[in-house]
Design a protein that fits this description.
The structure is a homodimer. The first copy, chain A, is an alpha/beta fold. Among the domains of chain A are: about 55 residues, no CATH class; about 280 residues, Type I PLP-dependent aspartate aminotransferase-like (Major domain) (Aspartate Aminotransferase, domain 2), CATH 3.40.640. Helices cover about 35% and strands about 10% of the residues of chain A. In chain A, strand 1 and strand 2 form a beta hairpin. The longest helix of chain A is centred in the C-terminal third of the chain and has 22 residues. At the A-B interface, helix 2, helix 4, helix 5, helix 6 and strand 3 of A face helix 2, helix 4, helix 5, helix 6 and strand 3 of B.
Amino acid sequence: MASVRAAGRFQPAARTALQAGISQQTRSYASLFAGEPSGPEIKTQIPGPKSQQAIKELDKVFDTRAVNMLADYTKSKGNYIVDPDGNVLLDVYAQIASIPVGYNNPTLAKAAQSLEMINSLINRPALGNFPSHDWAQILETGILSVAPKGLDQVFTATAGSDANECAFKAAFMYKAQQRRGGPDVEFTAEELSSCMNNALPGASNLSILSFKSAFHGRLFGTLSTTRSKPIHKLDIPAFDWPQATFPLLKYPLEEHASENAKAEADALADVERLITTFPHPPAAVIVEPIQSEGGDNHASPAFFRGLRELTVKHDVLFIVDEVQTGIGATGKFWAHEHWDLPSPPDMVTFSKKAQTAGYYYGNHALRPNKPYRQFNTWMGDPARAILFRGIIDEVNRLNLVEHTAKTGDYLYAGIEKLAAKYPGQFKNLRGKGQGTFIAFDSPQRDAFLKKAKTVGVNIGGSGESAVRLRPMLIFDTEHADILLEAMEKIVKM
Amino acid sequence: MASVRAAGRFQPAARTALQAGISQQTRSYASLFAGEPSGPEIKTQIPGPKSQQAIKELDKVFDTRAVNMLADYTKSKGNYIVDPDGNVLLDVYAQIASIPVGYNNPTLAKAAQSLEMINSLINRPALGNFPSHDWAQILETGILSVAPKGLDQVFTATAGSDANECAFKAAFMYKAQQRRGGPDVEFTAEELSSCMNNALPGASNLSILSFKSAFHGRLFGTLSTTRSKPIHKLDIPAFDWPQATFPLLKYPLEEHASENAKAEADALADVERLITTFPHPPAAVIVEPIQSEGGDNHASPAFFRGLRELTVKHDVLFIVDEVQTGIGATGKFWAHEHWDLPSPPDMVTFSKKAQTAGYYYGNHALRPNKPYRQFNTWMGDPARAILFRGIIDEVNRLNLVEHTAKTGDYLYAGIEKLAAKYPGQFKNLRGKGQGTFIAFDSPQRDAFLKKAKTVGVNIGGSGESAVRLRPMLIFDTEHADILLEAMEKIVKM
């Protein structure tokens, strides 16, 4: 493999035993993304002098304190992000898990140059009032072609947080309607007037139940369900909504089966307690298939089936937040396909890798009883819906969901070996059988992420101590080898 | 003028006296948008058979109950929206006031085809973490080139509601920081833990003060400040935040000067009362320069100066919501330029005609004391920022702000004449000297809007009885004449 790399490029000192069969992998890799750099190349510290200068300029007008690194997207390609100083990094963070098929993907470039895209960019409609004649077709050949089983309708939105808030609103209106006696019962004069004062009975005293360490967004409704980190929540008004215990599983799973089963049973009991006793009864429960921002916390399919059963039992809506887990990264198109649910979720929210956003639903009654109750000016963006259709085409063309399942297994096995070789450095390895949606805890996580840049890899963290791997769907065993080598270098530094 | 129209096109039966000087106007019109239809053309009822079929198809997967009309954007041009049945309507609603320079504007089409646009569409960054090397330049040549006086920084967002919520968050963090004793005072252990329970002291007990009949968006925070209509608010949890009286001016203004001055003084007194006594003290006051969704309610520059003075006096932030009023429609680039404020607003929010969104600010201290407090994955969209730059180029090239001021005066004078001719049909005419941002009350508003379609004009409403005119910036006296004729036909129907 080394021979395909340009001279002067980053060359890991040691090659692992995982590189058997590389020539075959190289071929498959080449077919996935032609013309990608053959490996990382680090020329300067990061940020280098050019980046530092640009960040300084930018900071005059735009807060740059969260800048991780500056990027030159005209030069980035496939799995590789390039910075203005010419540094080339293997990117397994991928814009906080939101780049699906690689930088400057040719299929997407084609979609972006289509007449349809240009038209949708310059003639953005108010979708609820003035949809285009072909909006149904754009939805059916794109967003709805990958709708989760049982959910055949969509409300489109602009970003994940927006999608979740709109799903919450659908849940509140549905439950209030139910309590009122059905969609045909008219609002009372008192409801009509009190809601204008943000007061009961017109406003709602219902809630959304979420889990400890969950992340569902940072707008005021979603932030009230986000329980990941204080820095997200400090000084912001929040609703008095319930948070249930999330089962914190112990690893390796096979050594803690009974403890973990008990943790999940306890968590479900906590959910049931809150549903039945919390002063503001939940209209819905929202859950991530894998808590991402909160630290890559997993639970078993049995837990999620139990959760689905509880919501059915107590007639509470079940919202699955697939903003980060959706679009193939777990080796299924939707992560909740791993669960074998007895009935579909009521709503599934999506964004990030979809490059658009919204919620899927199946029950027609989740459309509120009158128009304009769920409404806003843009209600999404056809341009981004067209881009998602291009992404879906690319995922199908390259069979990227199955590919990611396989590459994930390969990567997981590699990290398992590293964990055995370097005890304590790759703790609580998780994500087995979950595609490339893999994480582990590092004793010096922040230092780990910083060192990763010096060896040519861009990696993100989650929670307090997790290293979260979020490669793109075009990540291959070739890249897994580079990542594994880099991680070995890091822990030896 | 009739000669420039294609045979068979819609021909108003009567021409008004306003059409003097038409040949000159036709020339200026032609230079604004070449190839635009010469007038409306109505072939079927709306929706016609093709539209009805398409709406039926769409409704299977997407709620269509708020559909006003279906559009074929590939055929729409300039000020004219075209539907699948071939109906051509003069559009003075313009996607709820969000199309600035016409359908299929060639300058925007060029921007949409640029390499920069394609790159930004297919490589969407997480802007807070991985901005592009040229993000500062995109901001400076676009969004910031039209920044309101005194505000030289921006936080970018995806839509108006999102922009307002982010501005609220900035206000809450700023005020909490101030109360805490400055940006260097660390959070207490109790704050860090209580915020995770959505509880004080970590969460905030502060509020945002808005006005009766205001509209600031429909997410949970913004909806708590929106007080336009019950249909927006029913069954949704809301924060206990204060709403102040908005002065309801009487028209014509010159006949009610002292009454109106008293209404404004009373409203300001109400604001001061709420700032000083409301149990949840306001961190900020948010106001629209002209309440749009709530019924096109205006107030005088003196009122807004008074409001600015009150916020300074009580050290409350002053947020001006220019989502609907911004980008030239009032004959100034920003509507608050009409006010001659003693000091700039603390934040100005924007979206709609900008086709992107965000809030401008000037005080560096409005950046929270730590990174990641104001943050989300995308934090806006460079593709849409590039489009806004194209819009700004077009506005400057055609001098569209001044143009809109002039066309607005012409249109206003025409409606004044109609109001004199048809007493009671064009009540409370408002928006004099405010560009084309004109409205009046109609005794049968909903019927008025419906009839408008039959005479080839797409018009929107606001509040209970207002007809709100929201032409694009390329609307010219030529179009004003067509609109005036159409409105005369409507009231004679």
